[in-house]
Hints:
It is a single chain. 38% of the residues lie in helices and 29% in strands. By secondary structure, the protein is α+β, with helices and mostly antiparallel strands. It has a domain at 2-59 and 84-164 and 253-336: FAD/NAD(P)-binding domain, CATH 3.50.50. Helix 1 (2-9) packs parallel to helix 6 and helix 11 crosses helix 12. The two termini are 24 Å apart. P-hydroxybenzoic acid is lined by residues 31-33, 184, 197, 205, 278-281. P-hydroxybenzoic acid binds next to loops.
Amino acid sequence: MILAILLQMRGIDVVVLERGTRVDVLSRIRAGIMEPGIVQFLRDSGIETRIDQLGRPRNGSRIVWQDRPDVVIDVKRWTGAEMMAYGQTYLTEDLYAQADRLGTQLFDDVTELAVTGLQGNRPQVAFKTPDRAVEITCDYVIGCDGGRGHCLGLIPEAARQVHERIYPFGWLGIMVEAPPLDDVTYIHHSEGFALAAQRGPNLSRYYVQTPLDQGVEQWPDVRFWQTFLTRAPKDVADAVVTGPSIEKALTPLRSRVVEPLRWGRLFLAGDAAHLVPPTGAKGLNLAINDVRLLSQALIAHFEEGDDGLLERYSTDALARVWAASDLSWRLTRLLHVFPGEPSFDDRLRQFDYDRLLESEDRQRALALDYAGING
Ligand code: PHB
Protein backbone atom coordinates (compact mmCIF):
# COMPACT_ATOMS: atom_id res chain seq x y z
CA MET A 1 0.00 0.00 0.00
CA ILE A 2 2.88 2.36 0.76
CA LEU A 3 4.47 1.59 -2.59
CA ALA A 4 1.16 2.02 -4.37
CA ILE A 5 0.59 5.42 -2.76
CA LEU A 6 4.15 6.62 -3.49
CA LEU A 7 3.88 5.63 -7.16
CA GLN A 8 0.40 6.96 -7.56
CA MET A 9 1.48 10.33 -6.17
CA ARG A 10 3.97 10.49 -9.08
CA GLY A 11 1.29 9.67 -11.61
CA ILE A 12 2.43 6.08 -12.14
CA ASP A 13 -0.55 3.74 -12.57
CA VAL A 14 -0.85 1.08 -9.91
CA VAL A 15 -3.31 -1.72 -9.25
CA VAL A 16 -3.29 -3.38 -5.82
CA LEU A 17 -4.57 -6.95 -5.40
CA GLU A 18 -5.38 -8.28 -1.94
CA ARG A 19 -6.38 -11.85 -1.16
CA GLY A 20 -8.30 -10.89 1.99
CA THR A 21 -11.06 -8.40 2.49
CA ARG A 22 -10.44 -5.01 4.02
CA VAL A 23 -11.96 -6.29 7.25
CA ASP A 24 -9.48 -9.22 7.24
CA VAL A 25 -6.55 -6.92 6.65
CA LEU A 26 -7.56 -4.46 9.34
CA SER A 27 -8.00 -7.21 11.91
CA ARG A 28 -4.43 -8.48 11.49
CA ILE A 29 -2.38 -7.64 14.51
CA ARG A 30 1.36 -7.27 14.08
CA ALA A 31 4.20 -5.73 16.03
CA GLY A 32 4.20 -2.05 16.77
CA ILE A 33 7.71 -0.65 17.02
CA MET A 34 9.08 1.57 14.29
CA GLU A 35 12.68 2.60 13.75
CA PRO A 36 13.49 6.34 13.70
CA GLY A 37 14.63 6.24 10.07
CA ILE A 38 11.43 4.53 8.97
CA VAL A 39 9.22 7.03 10.81
CA GLN A 40 11.17 9.89 9.23
CA PHE A 41 10.84 8.33 5.79
CA LEU A 42 7.06 8.11 6.19
CA ARG A 43 6.89 11.74 7.33
CA ASP A 44 9.09 12.98 4.45
CA SER A 45 7.57 10.90 1.69
CA GLY A 46 4.02 12.21 1.77
CA ILE A 47 2.51 9.10 3.37
CA GLU A 48 -0.21 10.54 5.61
CA THR A 49 -0.29 8.81 8.97
CA ARG A 50 -1.43 9.54 12.50
CA ILE A 51 1.97 8.58 13.89
CA ASP A 52 2.53 11.99 15.43
CA GLN A 53 -0.93 11.99 17.02
CA LEU A 54 -1.33 8.36 18.11
CA GLY A 55 2.24 7.03 18.21
CA ARG A 56 4.16 6.91 21.46
CA PRO A 57 7.78 8.06 21.07
CA ARG A 58 10.03 5.79 23.14
CA ASN A 59 13.65 6.16 24.21
CA GLY A 60 14.19 2.45 23.73
CA SER A 61 13.21 -0.86 25.28
CA ARG A 62 14.15 -2.83 28.35
CA ILE A 63 15.45 -6.35 28.88
CA VAL A 64 14.72 -7.89 32.27
CA TRP A 65 16.38 -11.11 33.34
CA GLN A 66 15.68 -13.47 36.15
CA ASP A 67 18.13 -12.78 39.03
CA ARG A 68 20.16 -10.21 37.13
CA PRO A 69 19.97 -6.44 36.59
CA ASP A 70 18.10 -4.97 33.60
CA VAL A 71 19.63 -3.81 30.35
CA VAL A 72 18.10 -0.77 28.69
CA ILE A 73 18.33 -0.79 24.90
CA ASP A 74 18.78 2.95 25.04
CA VAL A 75 18.26 4.10 21.48
CA LYS A 76 17.85 7.75 22.53
CA ARG A 77 21.10 7.80 24.47
CA TRP A 78 23.21 6.14 21.80
CA THR A 79 21.68 7.56 18.65
CA GLY A 80 19.86 10.72 19.75
CA ALA A 81 16.73 9.43 17.99
CA GLU A 82 13.55 7.89 19.30
CA MET A 83 11.74 4.68 18.49
CA MET A 84 8.01 4.95 17.93
CA ALA A 85 5.37 2.61 19.32
CA TYR A 86 2.66 2.59 16.62
CA GLY A 87 0.64 -0.51 15.87
CA GLN A 88 0.82 -1.81 12.32
CA THR A 89 -2.97 -1.96 12.26
CA TYR A 90 -3.18 1.82 12.72
CA LEU A 91 -0.76 2.31 9.86
CA THR A 92 -2.84 0.02 7.66
CA GLU A 93 -5.92 2.13 8.45
CA ASP A 94 -3.96 5.27 7.49
CA LEU A 95 -2.91 3.69 4.18
CA TYR A 96 -6.43 2.62 3.23
CA ALA A 97 -7.66 6.15 4.00
CA GLN A 98 -4.99 7.76 1.81
CA ALA A 99 -5.43 5.24 -1.00
CA ASP A 100 -9.17 5.97 -0.95
CA ARG A 101 -8.51 9.70 -1.14
CA LEU A 102 -6.14 9.18 -4.08
CA GLY A 103 -8.54 6.81 -5.82
CA THR A 104 -5.99 3.98 -5.93
CA GLN A 105 -7.33 0.94 -7.79
CA LEU A 106 -7.72 -1.73 -5.15
CA PHE A 107 -9.17 -5.21 -5.64
CA ASP A 108 -10.14 -7.11 -2.48
CA ASP A 109 -11.01 -10.74 -2.00
CA VAL A 110 -8.91 -11.80 -5.00
CA THR A 111 -8.86 -15.46 -6.03
CA GLU A 112 -7.51 -17.54 -8.93
CA LEU A 113 -4.51 -15.30 -9.41
CA ALA A 114 -2.40 -16.21 -12.45
CA VAL A 115 0.73 -14.29 -13.38
CA THR A 116 2.54 -14.93 -16.67
CA GLY A 117 5.12 -13.32 -18.91
CA LEU A 118 7.49 -12.27 -16.15
CA GLN A 119 10.52 -12.84 -18.36
CA GLY A 120 9.08 -10.64 -21.12
CA ASN A 121 8.37 -6.90 -21.21
CA ARG A 122 4.63 -7.04 -20.53
CA PRO A 123 3.63 -9.43 -17.74
CA GLN A 124 -0.03 -10.45 -17.57
CA VAL A 125 -2.03 -10.80 -14.38
CA ALA A 126 -5.42 -12.52 -14.33
CA PHE A 127 -7.65 -12.93 -11.28
CA LYS A 128 -11.20 -13.10 -10.00
CA THR A 129 -13.04 -11.02 -7.44
CA PRO A 130 -16.49 -11.96 -6.09
CA ASP A 131 -18.15 -10.06 -8.94
CA ARG A 132 -15.84 -10.28 -11.93
CA ALA A 133 -12.87 -11.71 -13.77
CA VAL A 134 -10.08 -9.25 -14.57
CA GLU A 135 -7.01 -9.35 -16.81
CA ILE A 136 -4.27 -6.74 -16.64
CA THR A 137 -1.14 -6.19 -18.69
CA CYS A 138 1.55 -4.29 -16.83
CA ASP A 139 5.22 -3.33 -16.70
CA TYR A 140 6.15 -4.85 -13.34
CA VAL A 141 4.67 -7.17 -10.74
CA ILE A 142 5.63 -6.47 -7.14
CA GLY A 143 5.08 -9.44 -4.82
CA CYS A 144 4.19 -7.98 -1.41
CA ASP A 145 1.94 -10.88 -0.54
CA GLY A 146 3.48 -12.20 2.64
CA GLY A 147 5.20 -15.36 3.76
CA ARG A 148 2.47 -17.65 2.43
CA GLY A 149 1.69 -15.67 -0.69
CA HIS A 150 1.64 -16.58 -4.36
CA CYS A 151 4.56 -14.58 -5.73
CA LEU A 152 7.54 -16.40 -4.23
CA GLY A 153 6.30 -19.54 -5.99
CA LEU A 154 6.44 -17.73 -9.35
CA ILE A 155 10.23 -17.85 -9.23
CA PRO A 156 11.51 -21.24 -10.39
CA GLU A 157 13.36 -23.08 -7.63
CA ALA A 158 16.51 -23.13 -9.71
CA ALA A 159 16.47 -19.33 -9.89
CA ARG A 160 16.28 -18.63 -6.15
CA GLN A 161 17.69 -19.66 -2.82
CA VAL A 162 15.59 -19.77 0.33
CA HIS A 163 17.63 -19.60 3.55
CA GLU A 164 15.50 -20.58 6.50
CA ARG A 165 15.49 -21.32 10.22
CA ILE A 166 12.40 -22.64 11.97
CA TYR A 167 12.31 -22.10 15.73
CA PRO A 168 10.97 -24.83 18.06
CA PHE A 169 8.45 -22.55 19.80
CA GLY A 170 5.88 -19.86 19.15
CA TRP A 171 4.56 -16.68 20.73
CA LEU A 172 1.10 -16.52 22.17
CA GLY A 173 -0.04 -12.90 22.07
CA ILE A 174 -3.01 -11.23 23.71
CA MET A 175 -4.49 -7.75 23.51
CA VAL A 176 -5.82 -6.23 26.71
CA GLU A 177 -7.78 -3.04 27.34
CA ALA A 178 -5.57 -1.74 30.12
CA PRO A 179 -2.73 0.77 30.42
CA PRO A 180 0.59 -0.73 29.23
CA LEU A 181 3.97 -0.59 30.95
CA ASP A 182 5.99 2.52 30.10
CA ASP A 183 8.64 0.52 28.23
CA VAL A 184 8.49 -2.36 25.80
CA THR A 185 9.90 -5.03 28.13
CA TYR A 186 11.61 -8.23 26.96
CA ILE A 187 11.67 -10.86 29.73
CA HIS A 188 14.02 -13.82 30.01
CA HIS A 189 13.21 -16.53 32.55
CA SER A 190 14.36 -20.14 32.88
CA GLU A 191 10.82 -21.22 31.91
CA GLY A 192 10.82 -19.13 28.77
CA PHE A 193 10.48 -15.71 27.21
CA ALA A 194 7.75 -13.12 27.71
CA LEU A 195 7.15 -9.62 26.37
CA ALA A 196 5.11 -6.59 27.40
CA ALA A 197 4.33 -4.15 24.58
CA GLN A 198 2.05 -1.20 23.96
CA ARG A 199 -0.66 -0.12 21.59
CA GLY A 200 -2.17 2.95 23.19
CA PRO A 201 -2.82 4.70 26.51
CA ASN A 202 -5.36 2.02 27.38
CA LEU A 203 -4.34 -0.86 25.12
CA SER A 204 -1.58 -3.34 25.91
CA ARG A 205 -0.10 -6.29 24.09
CA TYR A 206 1.51 -9.20 25.96
CA TYR A 207 3.23 -12.35 24.74
CA VAL A 208 4.62 -15.56 26.19
CA GLN A 209 6.84 -18.17 24.53
CA THR A 210 4.79 -21.34 24.05
CA PRO A 211 5.35 -24.88 22.76
CA LEU A 212 4.24 -25.36 19.16
CA ASP A 213 1.99 -28.32 19.90
CA GLN A 214 -0.46 -26.24 21.96
CA GLY A 215 -3.25 -24.25 20.35
CA VAL A 216 -4.90 -21.03 21.51
CA GLU A 217 -7.72 -23.06 23.11
CA GLN A 218 -5.18 -24.52 25.54
CA TRP A 219 -4.32 -21.03 26.69
CA PRO A 220 -7.27 -19.56 28.59
CA ASP A 221 -6.53 -16.12 30.05
CA VAL A 222 -5.91 -17.53 33.52
CA ARG A 223 -3.10 -19.74 32.22
CA PHE A 224 -1.68 -16.93 30.12
CA TRP A 225 -1.46 -14.55 33.06
CA GLN A 226 -0.06 -17.20 35.42
CA THR A 227 2.66 -17.92 32.89
CA PHE A 228 3.40 -14.28 32.18
CA LEU A 229 3.50 -13.26 35.84
CA THR A 230 5.75 -16.20 36.75
CA ARG A 231 8.26 -15.18 34.11
CA ALA A 232 8.21 -11.48 35.00
CA PRO A 233 10.40 -10.25 37.88
CA LYS A 234 8.41 -8.91 40.84
CA ASP A 235 8.66 -5.21 39.97
CA VAL A 236 7.41 -5.87 36.43
CA ALA A 237 4.68 -8.25 37.58
CA ASP A 238 3.48 -5.67 40.12
CA ALA A 239 3.29 -2.95 37.47
CA VAL A 240 1.35 -4.98 34.89
CA VAL A 241 -2.39 -4.27 34.72
CA THR A 242 -3.96 -7.60 33.81
CA GLY A 243 -7.41 -8.04 32.31
CA PRO A 244 -9.44 -10.20 29.94
CA SER A 245 -7.96 -10.66 26.47
CA ILE A 246 -9.87 -9.09 23.60
CA GLU A 247 -7.74 -10.94 21.03
CA LYS A 248 -5.47 -13.96 21.23
CA ALA A 249 -3.27 -15.56 18.57
CA LEU A 250 -0.34 -17.91 18.23
CA THR A 251 2.59 -16.99 16.00
CA PRO A 252 5.20 -19.58 15.01
CA LEU A 253 8.71 -18.12 14.74
CA ARG A 254 10.70 -18.34 11.57
CA SER A 255 13.66 -16.64 9.90
CA ARG A 256 13.76 -16.69 6.11
CA VAL A 257 15.63 -14.82 3.43
CA VAL A 258 15.02 -15.32 -0.29
CA GLU A 259 17.82 -14.47 -2.72
CA PRO A 260 17.66 -12.74 -5.10
CA LEU A 261 14.55 -10.54 -4.75
CA ARG A 262 14.07 -10.20 -8.49
CA TRP A 263 13.10 -12.56 -11.28
CA GLY A 264 12.59 -10.80 -14.59
CA ARG A 265 9.76 -8.33 -14.11
CA LEU A 266 8.87 -9.64 -10.65
CA PHE A 267 10.24 -7.99 -7.50
CA LEU A 268 9.61 -9.37 -4.02
CA ALA A 269 9.20 -7.11 -0.99
CA GLY A 270 8.30 -7.50 2.68
CA ASP A 271 7.36 -10.88 4.11
CA ALA A 272 7.15 -12.39 0.62
CA ALA A 273 10.91 -11.87 0.46
CA HIS A 274 11.97 -12.41 4.05
CA LEU A 275 10.59 -13.35 7.44
CA VAL A 276 12.01 -12.47 10.82
CA PRO A 277 10.93 -13.75 14.21
CA PRO A 278 9.06 -10.95 16.01
CA THR A 279 11.84 -10.49 18.58
CA GLY A 280 13.04 -6.99 17.73
CA ALA A 281 9.91 -6.10 15.74
CA LYS A 282 11.76 -5.76 12.45
CA GLY A 283 9.16 -7.11 10.00
CA LEU A 284 7.28 -3.90 9.25
CA ASN A 285 10.49 -1.85 9.25
CA LEU A 286 12.07 -4.13 6.67
CA ALA A 287 8.99 -4.12 4.49
CA ILE A 288 8.89 -0.33 4.48
CA ASN A 289 12.60 -0.18 3.68
CA ASP A 290 12.05 -2.51 0.71
CA VAL A 291 9.32 -0.34 -0.75
CA ARG A 292 11.30 2.81 -0.03
CA LEU A 293 14.02 1.42 -2.32
CA LEU A 294 11.54 0.06 -4.85
CA SER A 295 9.64 3.33 -5.08
CA GLN A 296 12.87 5.23 -5.82
CA ALA A 297 13.89 2.60 -8.37
CA LEU A 298 10.54 2.54 -10.16
CA ILE A 299 10.28 6.34 -10.20
CA ALA A 300 13.80 6.51 -11.74
CA HIS A 301 12.70 3.97 -14.34
CA PHE A 302 9.47 5.69 -15.32
CA GLU A 303 10.59 9.30 -15.02
CA GLU A 304 14.19 9.13 -16.22
CA GLY A 305 14.45 5.80 -18.01
CA ASP A 306 17.22 4.89 -15.57
CA ASP A 307 17.21 1.24 -14.46
CA GLY A 308 20.29 1.42 -12.24
CA LEU A 309 18.34 1.32 -8.98
CA LEU A 310 16.08 -1.48 -10.21
CA GLU A 311 19.19 -3.52 -11.05
CA ARG A 312 20.53 -2.90 -7.55
CA TYR A 313 17.28 -3.36 -5.64
CA SER A 314 17.91 -6.93 -4.55
CA THR A 315 21.45 -6.26 -3.32
CA ASP A 316 20.52 -2.98 -1.63
CA ALA A 317 17.44 -4.37 0.13
CA LEU A 318 19.16 -7.57 1.22
CA ALA A 319 21.96 -5.71 3.01
CA ARG A 320 19.40 -4.32 5.45
CA VAL A 321 17.49 -7.61 5.54
CA TRP A 322 20.57 -9.57 6.63
CA ALA A 323 21.38 -7.01 9.32
CA ALA A 324 17.85 -7.28 10.73
CA SER A 325 17.85 -11.07 10.38
CA ASP A 326 21.02 -11.17 12.41
CA LEU A 327 19.61 -8.94 15.14
CA SER A 328 16.32 -10.87 15.32
CA TRP A 329 18.13 -14.18 15.51
CA ARG A 330 20.56 -12.97 18.18
CA LEU A 331 17.78 -11.51 20.32
CA THR A 332 15.68 -14.64 19.88
CA ARG A 333 18.57 -16.89 20.92
CA LEU A 334 19.46 -14.64 23.85
CA LEU A 335 15.97 -14.34 25.30
CA HIS A 336 14.23 -17.69 24.67
CA VAL A 337 14.66 -21.13 26.16
CA PHE A 338 15.13 -23.73 23.43
CA PRO A 339 13.44 -27.00 24.41
CA GLY A 340 15.97 -29.80 24.96
CA GLU A 341 18.99 -27.52 24.54
CA PRO A 342 22.25 -28.63 26.18
CA SER A 343 23.18 -26.77 29.40
CA PHE A 344 26.15 -25.47 27.40
CA ASP A 345 23.81 -23.29 25.34
CA ASP A 346 22.15 -21.86 28.42
CA ARG A 347 25.49 -21.08 30.05
CA LEU A 348 26.57 -19.25 26.91
CA ARG A 349 23.30 -17.30 27.00
CA GLN A 350 23.95 -16.22 30.59
CA PHE A 351 27.52 -15.34 29.65
CA ASP A 352 26.29 -13.30 26.71
CA TYR A 353 23.90 -11.38 28.95
CA ASP A 354 26.60 -10.74 31.55
CA ARG A 355 28.86 -9.32 28.85
CA LEU A 356 26.04 -7.07 27.71
CA LEU A 357 25.57 -5.87 31.30
CA GLU A 358 29.25 -5.10 31.66
CA SER A 359 29.97 -3.45 28.35
CA GLU A 360 28.64 -0.11 27.20
CA ASP A 361 30.13 -0.82 23.79
CA ARG A 362 27.91 -3.88 23.47
CA GLN A 363 24.87 -1.97 24.73
CA ARG A 364 25.52 0.73 22.17
CA ALA A 365 25.96 -1.81 19.37
CA LEU A 366 22.68 -3.48 20.35
CA ALA A 367 20.88 -0.11 20.45
CA LEU A 368 22.12 0.76 16.94
CA ASP A 369 21.00 -2.60 15.57
CA TYR A 370 17.67 -2.29 17.33
CA ALA A 371 17.17 1.17 15.83
CA GLY A 372 18.10 -0.10 12.36
CA ILE A 373 21.08 2.23 12.13
CA ASN A 374 24.30 1.27 10.30
CA GLY A 375 22.49 -1.80 9.02
C1 PHB B 1 4.59 -5.49 19.70
O1 PHB B 1 4.37 -4.29 19.89
O2 PHB B 1 3.67 -6.29 19.51
C2 PHB B 1 5.99 -5.93 19.72
C3 PHB B 1 6.97 -5.11 20.23
C4 PHB B 1 8.30 -5.51 20.22
C5 PHB B 1 8.63 -6.73 19.68
C6 PHB B 1 7.65 -7.55 19.15
C7 PHB B 1 6.34 -7.15 19.16
O3 PHB B 1 9.92 -7.12 19.66
